């Protein structure tokens, strides 16, 4: 069963060479609209991207910073619309894309669990039932009454991952969640991902931890500047990607 289909997807962004840098300049631009922007440039975060994902697959995405990986996940999560092309997703999606996404800084950890879970589609009585398990997994019992603006990046990751996995989505979308937190937390995350995969769930993983991608993902996409450089069996794609970074050296024959 196909759960994600991307067909001829392009995503374009704009940036402006001149923007107001002070209150005085903002007032001037309001009085003189022609001075607001000198010019606009555009770039494509994704170009002619195609992807078909079937239920139960765990797919990795690798590439340098700015290659389009995070943009792709935001398109699939419904945060961005494509500039052109189509993105079809069948099933519930739990995205963990950036630290603190779905959280409110002034609310406590407990309040944010209920907020984030409601954004992901859970009702209050469902969160009541799952809350103890979420907190236990995150190992955050003593911090749940603390406003999350005082949390470390690792604490954000713990709480966000715990909420996302315990709502039991059809599709789990992870962007560098394994890059933060201690070794024990990363091991629990990896175990949970493998449990999801074994239960027939779909996982999309962006990570610079190549060992995790190689071990757990059957297929991998290598992106650079919005284009697919290689896609297919993880071991084959990784050979090219590592070679591009100088991590693979040719061994002279004897």
Explain what the structure shows:
By secondary structure, the chain is of the alpha/beta class. It has one domain (57-244): P-loop containing nucleotide triphosphate hydrolases (Rossmann fold, 3-Layer(aba) Sandwich). 36% of the residues lie in helices and 27% in strands. It has eight helices and nine strands. It has helices at residues 23-31, 69-76, 109-119, 124-138, 153-166, 183-198, 210-216, 234-244, and strands spanning 2-16, 40-54, 58-62, 84-89, 93-96, 171-175, 202-206, 219-224, 227-233. The strands form two sheets. A six-stranded mixed beta sheet has the order 5-6-7-3-8-9, with helices on both faces. Strands 2-1-4 form a three-stranded antiparallel beta sheet. β8 (219-224) and β9 (227-233) form a beta hairpin. α3 (109-119) packs across α5 and α4 crosses α5. The chain is globular and about 45 Å long. The N and C termini lie far apart (49 Å).
Fold topology:
Blueprint: E1 2-16, H1 23-31, E2 40-54, E3 58-62, H2 69-76, E4 84-89, E5 93-96, H3 109-119, H4 124-138, H5 153-166, E6 171-175, H6 183-198, E7 202-206, H7 210-216, E8 219-224, E9 227-233, H8 234-244
Helix pairs in contact: 3-5, 4-5
């Amino acid at each position: 069963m196909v759960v994600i289909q991307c067909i001829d997807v392009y995503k374009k962004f704009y940036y402006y060479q001149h923007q107001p840098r002070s209150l005085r300049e903002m007032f001037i631009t309001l009085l003189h609209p022609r001075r607001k922007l000198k010019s606009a440039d555009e770039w494509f975060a994704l170009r002619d991207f195609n992807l078909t994902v079937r239920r139960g697959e765990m797919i990795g995405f690798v590439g340098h910073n700015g290659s389009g990986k995070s943009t792709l996940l935001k398109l699939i999560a419904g945060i961005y619309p494509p500039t052109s092309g189509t993105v079809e997703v069948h099933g519930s999606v739990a995205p963990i894309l950036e630290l603190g996404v779905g959280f409110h800084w002034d609310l406590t950890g407990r309040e944010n669990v209920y907020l984030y879970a409601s954004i992901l589609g859970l009702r209050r009585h469902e969160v009541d039932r799952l809350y103890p398990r979420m907190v236990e997994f995150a190992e955050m019992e003593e911090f749940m009454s603390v406003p999350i603006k005082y949390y470390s990046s690792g604490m954000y990751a713990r709480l966000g991952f715990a909420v996302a996995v315990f709502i039991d989505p059809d599709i789990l979308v992870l962007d560098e969640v394994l890059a933060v937190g201690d070794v024990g937390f990363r091991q629990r995350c990896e175990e949970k991902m493998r449990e999801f995969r074994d239960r027939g769930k779909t996982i999309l993983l962006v990570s610079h931890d190549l060992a995790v991608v190689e071990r757990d993902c059957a297929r991998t996409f290598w992106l650079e500047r919005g284009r697919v450089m290689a896609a297919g069996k993880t071991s084959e794609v990784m050979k090219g990607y590592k070679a591009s970074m100088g991590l693979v050296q040719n061994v002279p024959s004897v």
